[in-house]
Design brief:
By secondary structure, the protein is of the alpha/beta class. 45% of the residues lie in helices and 17% in strands.
């Protein structure tokens, strides 16, 4: 028993010394991946971000030596899924596929003192998988051909009772609607939905007059005339819809925002694992079959560096934090 105790004590000392020197993190990165990787999508299945996550998961499963599986954890503006990743072990086995909702919803949660994570410190960017513009859409019955005409319509006819829909409080469409109400002095009722799919269905049914999401979600409906594209939030006109103006062209530059879908790991994930995941993501989105699929969805394959993913998140948090504070947008 004495020998065993001494052996155990010595082993414990060695383990503690190794932990202090950082060797376990290096060993973890060298042996990664040793089991399946979980890609959390913080929205219901069927939306653009879910489609992109499954595309990356499929290609990654073929090259990384382990299955990559998608788990949908929607709710609270995407914060439930984001929080699950923020609090996961920083070992590369639980990662997040997010979009432009992450910076906005995170700021709105903080505004309400309900943020379960810190968007500034709890995530490590892996890669921007793809860029996809955000498009603001209307039901065909709305007599306006662009967002400026839509605003003018409501300014001139105060009897109109229009609803705008969003994918939830703190989402980009919620911010778009509230900025228009405040700055353009118009009235609309906000109808929050639980994802892009139900938002589109309500818009197609005419129960909403204004909505919007990533262009991939509504391109088919725009092309067949079931929805009107009033504006994009992109810095320049979208090649696939050259007739649709940008918000900047329409005098609403405050709403300009880059559209992206990208991967994050928990903070403190070893750099070697981040780099491996970045390489796998870039390879996945630039695979010829992926390029065709993404192009068909009006998306641009990117596969950026981890630093570029971190930078776009910081930039958009800084851009919209004061706007969300001014508007008082919160997530209940």
């Amino acid at each position: 028993m004495l020998i065993t105790a001494r052996f155990l004590n010595a082993s414990l000392c060695l383990l503690l010394a190794a932990a202090a020197s950082g060797l376990p993190r290096e060993t973890l990165a060298q042996s990664y991946p040793a089991r399946p990787i979980r890609i959390v999508v913080p929205f219901p299945a069927g939306g653009t971000t879910d489609i992109f996550a499954r595309l990356v998961a499929q290609r990654m499963s073929e090259t990384i030596g382990q299955p990559a599986v998608v788990e949908n954890r929607g709710g609270a503006g995407g914060s439930i899924g984001a929080d699950a990743v923020a609090k996961a072990a920083p070992d590369g086995y639980t990662i997040l596929m997010a979009n432009i909702t992450l910076p906005l919803a995170s700021v709105a949660l903080a505004q309400a003192n309900r943020a379960p994570y810190d968007v500034d410190t709890d995530f490590a960017g892996i890669s921007i998988a793809a860029n996809v513009p955000f498009v603001i859409t209307a039901h065909p019955s709305v007599p306006a051909n662009d967002l400026r005409e839509f605003v003018t319509l409501l300014q001139k006819d105060r009897t109109l009772k229009y609803n705008y829909g969003s994918t939830g409080p703190g989402s980009i469409m919620n911010v778009v609607g509230e900025v228009l109400k405040r700055d353009e002095k118009i009235e609309m009722t906000h109808i929050p939905l639980k994802g892009a799919a139900p938002l589109k269905q309500e818009l197609l049914a005419g129960r909403l007059q204004l909505g919007g999401d990533q262009l991939s979600s509504s391109l088919a409906e725009i092309r067949r005339g079931a929805l009107k594209a009033l504006a994009t939030t992109a810095p320049k006109r979208v090649a696939i819809l050259p007739e649709v103006p940008t918000v900047r062209e329409l005098g609403i530059a405050k709403l300009e925002i880059e559209g992206w879908n990208g991967l994050f790991a928990p903070a403190k994930t070893p750099r070697g694992i981040i780099e491996r995941l970045q390489r796998e993501t870039a390879a996945a989105v630039h695979h010829p079959d992926s390029v065709k699929r993404l192009t068909d969805l009006a998306a641009e394959p990117v596969g950026s560096t981890s630093a570029e993913q971190d930078a776009v998140l910081r930039r958009q948090v800084a851009q919209f934090r004061p706007i969300i504070r001014e508007l008082g947008v919160t997530i209940d």
